[in-house]
Amino acid sequence: MNSIQRLGIGLAALGRPAYINVGRADELPPDRSVEEMRQATWDVLDAAYAAGVRWMDAARSYGRSEEFLGGWLTARDPEGVTVSSKWGYTYVGDWKIDAPVHEIKEHGLDRYRTQYAESLGFLNGHLSVYQVHSLTEESPLFQDVRLQEALAEAAADGVRVGFSTSGPRQADTIRRALELEVSGRRLFRTVQSTWNILETSAGEALREARDAGLHVLLKEVLANGKLAVRPPMAASTLASEKGVGPDALALAAALSRPWADTVLMGAVSPAQLEANLVVKEVDLSEDELEVLSGLSVPADGYWAERSALPWT
To answer: Has this prediction a pTM greater than 0.85?
Structure first.
């Protein structure tokens, strides 16, 4: 499988006016109205599809991302796409950049049933993968047998059930989730986790998940934009030596993981996407990968810094 076939586009930074990604503000419409953000989303989806990208990722909490994506799917009727979405957070930002709260998390049966119906409606028959959003070891899902059984029922609709992870204990969550079974069958078939050259702590657990048959997706590969706009000096130097941007370098590092099936990009404009897609031209040697591996930081510190990023 070539690199383009392993890339996907995530809509976390396009489906709502505010998000924590750095380096996105100048690429977005000035007013960030619903219609302007819809058009921005369609522009990126059009460019991604034309380039050969076939995986699109949304979530109930990404503002109107499912609505925007569903409208694009209906209008364009593209062939061969895989659409993943997530439940467990509710968007409450009321389309305001300065909202005091943008999303609320709840992993309960009622929330799942409500949001699953909403996602099916917005995506109009295109939902392929439905994931628990930011599963952690503390999630009530691990004790809620009725919720687990309800999730398993989605397979009857032809939907693969998965989960995403966040936080410094991603690896522990992944390994615990792999043990969940319903009627003697493993519950989850996909996992979507944060992995980038700064935060590599989930790597071994993701390899184990891949070996167990799960489809592995990597998110936040650019560390919420930091690896594109203010990368570590070693990464910046290596990118310059190779004649590519630091974003393409970071994406190449993710694609170098043999257990990574899909690597998600978070571009908010065709220009950002074009810069990301330079990854097609990047080959990393073992020595260069070793340089990048030395940039990994302790997970606790990484996630503390991420949690302090402002919504803008």
So the answer is: yes
